[in-house]
Amino acid sequence: ARPCAFNQASWLRCMMDYGLCLLRGVPTTPGEIKKVAEEIGPVQKTVHPEVFDILGTEDARPLTIAYSSLPICLHMDETVYESPPGIQLLHCIRYDECVEGGESILLDSLPLLEQLREDCPKHFATLTRVPATFQNTAYSQRGGAVAPLPDLRYQCPHISTDITGRVTGFMWNPLLEGPLCVPEEDVEPYFEAYNYLGSMMDNSPLKITHQLKPGEALTFNNRRVLHERNPFRLNGGTRHLQGVYVNIDIFKWKFQVLTSRLHPGYPVRHVLNRCNW
Questions:
Q1: 3-state DSSP assignment of residue 200
Q2: From CA 247, how far away is CA 163, in angstroms rounded?
Q3: Cα distance between residue 51 and residue 261, in whole Å
Q4: What is the pLDDT of residue 3?
């Protein structure tokens, strides 16, 4: 059933305030998550299919680490783009009881970055100034055939701020990092700051852990919330998720439209689309 405007507004308001929201009762039909995403706006296209499958395997050489049973560290998706996906929706279609592990872990970057600014202003300033390199040489699988995708590469500092110092953007993905292409004098300060922030993430008490169940969809702001996954063992079972993306500005626009009718004056904040508006 199509959700009413009030429920839509509550859903988007939750993501605006906290960066994430868990939906329950989503039909486990493949492709259903695209319909949910389209309640916000059109699905954002990348080099991958609009609706991408994350089907767990214990093969020795999976197509990507997302398909493997290995742990995946905290990251944001598709940081090789100048405009990475905004809202990510992950829908659990099947998760057999015999499957062990595979919990999803999320971490809101905003309080973490403010803590970094307070505890070590030098490292915070370095990560706003020195550009990291994100690059990806990936492969796609369509109809059983594996084909290489064009190389994608993007450089920018991990943290973006406006003229007042407010954090307006964050980019983090150790899985898609390329060589650091900066002056020699920036190399050591960069890695000191990078490792300091990485340690803060690993030890943060703000992490949220959740084992997705069939019919649940985890929706979150990919520009703000980091996510990782614990390792898992299939034990002969199946772990099947599907995901889609929605553009961050479409999300912001839809939120503004709904709240102007239902909650006039409610602020737009914490979007992290490199803009205060």
A1: helix
A2: 25
A3: 31
A4: 47
DSSP code string of 32-77: HHHHHHTTTSSBPP-SS-SSEEEE----SS-SSGGGSSS-EEEE-T
CB neighbours of 71 closer than 8 A, spacing ≥ 6?
A: 228, 229, 230, 231
Is the Cβ–Cβ distance between 249 and 89 less than 8 Å?
no
| Helix (H) or strand (E) run with residue 157 in it | strand 152-157
Q: Which residues face 126 on adjacent strands?
A: none
What the block records as the tokens of 84 is 């990475």
Amino acid present at 115: Q
Residue 205, both tokens: 């008490």
Averaged pLDDT score across all residues of the chain: 90
Among 185, 198, 202, 223, smallest CA distance to 76 is for 223
- pLDDT band at 4, cuts 50/70/90? very low
Give residues with Cβ within 8 angstroms of 72, minimum separation 6.
Answer: 65, 66, 175, 228, 229
